[in-house]
Amino acid sequence: MLRAIGLTLLSAFLLILAFPKPQLWPLAWVALVPFLLAIDSRRFCSAGFLGLLFGFLFFFLNIGWLIYVTVPGAIVLSLYLAFYPALFALGVVYFKYLPLIPRVFILSALWAVLEFLRANLFTGFGWLTLGHSQYQNLLLIQIADIVGVYGISFLMMAVNILTFEIIRFVIAREHGDRSNLDEIASQRTLAMTQLKNIYITSAIITTLLVVSLAYGVWAFTQSKFSSTVQVGVIQPNIAQAIKWDERYMPAIMKQNLRLTDQVAQTKLDVILWPETALPGVVGEEPGYLEQIQLKALDLKTPIVMGAIDIQNDHYYNSAFLIGSEGKIKGRYKKIHLVPFGEFLPLRPVLGWLNKYIGLEDFTSGTEYTLFPAGVLEHKFGVLICFEDTINDLWRNFVNSGAGFLMNMTNDAWFMDTKEPFLHLQTAVLECVMNKRSLVRAANTGVSGFIDPLGRIMNLAEDKNGKKTFVEAVSSASIPVNDRITFYTKYADVFTSLCFLCILGAVFIPRRAYV
Q1: Contact 341, 328 (CB under 8 A)
Q2: How far apart are alpha carbons 337 and 362 in whole angstroms?
Q3: Domains in the chain and their CATH numbers?
Q4: Which among 295, 329, 333, 334 is annotated as catalytic?
């Protein structure tokens, strides 16, 4: 068991290295091999335990930045997320009776389905999928506009499982019983069958990889966008400790306006501010809103800014579009709220205890508001905070007519950790799946631009190249697209097919494979 634990820990560390930072993404194609060797020939209980161990270590070391908000929350969330690798480990044990070829693809499908469930159950946490690790592998990830990020995870898991099967085959040949002639003959027959199946599986996976890369090449050759928009972003780098301190609010507003002047030295169509960049609450601090309106009027440039808004005693995390004439032209209310940060999920069952809880819930919006084309040539949507990591939000905005999207966020809560870069890589895959550009303004970074092919452009940085927890501005000309991808139109069809294949493998009698 100690050997199995060691292999499990090795897998977790290898996969951690595949994500930011240091982002050694090729490791993700083989990182799970030691874990598969660890659970090989295990029973359900020990395999499940190893899955929990792998999952907790991988997730906790990747989302440990949550401790800056809540230590118990970071531990509990990591434990919950660890159940998904544990379920996969149980699946490896359950499907061990399958022949090699279907086993490789059924287990790959199982991993993809579990990632999908993790992203959607209980408000969802879709970060840190295998597919997200490939956000710099631009040719491969273009296939995501058909199969989604889980299709990429499927392919990567298939490579991991195939590598494991090859290693297991080699080990079995080296340790076979060579003292009995009949046993030797039987082993040779079995080995020839296994080797044949390995060749067939390798050919199938190689074909899928080649097709995926060829599709990526084709996607780049077809990447001709007729329109562009000139956008600027500001990154004010306001520390979370002072962000809501009334003593600092005038200085914060002055800094935002100064950075806006700085980025506006280039002719722009629109300028984006981060989430809740306006100090205070719009309905309670009209003076700050007026300053932004005057700045938009003075620059003759629209400004999209984040602010807390109050209407009918309800608080909303909102985005406002201030037109070049200084008037409010649109307002979006955040739809997907962060549990325990913007609302308390358990409030309905707490009853009288609610009056002793200081947390004031935000109210979620209900409309996929597009800011009007009358301000710019093209309509666009705004995603607030982690909304740029939610598949359904992207699809609904794009299907509603968004030619590009903006994301305003404030990752200052999590200090100078890997969190902003994990956030960024997730957004890259969303851009590719929906073939839309994304403009990002983050209070402390990472701010910049992502085009429809997932290319990251013009990140805001200081003179030393540091991208987070620095004051900076940036601007770029981003492509606007009106094509609807297969994924945008039909969502996770591939994952649904994976689920059906798993059901088939479960309910087809085992004797059918004997």
Answers
A1: no
A2: 8
A3: 2-222+495-513 (no CATH), 227-480 (3.60.110.10)
A4: 334
Q: What is the mean pLDDT of each run of 10 residues along the chain (514 residues)?
A: 94 98 96 97 94 98 93 93 98 93 97 98 94 98 98 98 94 64 57 86 97 97 89 97 93 97 96 95 88 97 96 93 95 91 66 54 93 86 97 97 97 95 97 98 97 97 96 97 96 97 84 52
pLDDT for res 382 = 98
* 22 upstream amide cis, omega within 30 of 0: yes
- Residue in 275, 342, 387, 419 annotated catalytic: 275
Place of tokens 């200052």: 412
385 is catalytic: yes
CB contact set of 371 (below 8 Å; sequence gap of 6+): 304, 321, 329, 330, 332, 379, 380, 381, 382
- Tally the residues of the chain: 514
334 is catalytic: yes
Residue type, 374: G
Following CA atoms 261, 266, 270, 271 in sequence, which dihedral angle do they give, to the nearest 10 degrees? -40
> Which strands form 456-457's sheet, in the order they lie side by side?
370-371, 380-384, 404-409, 438-442, 448-450, 456-457
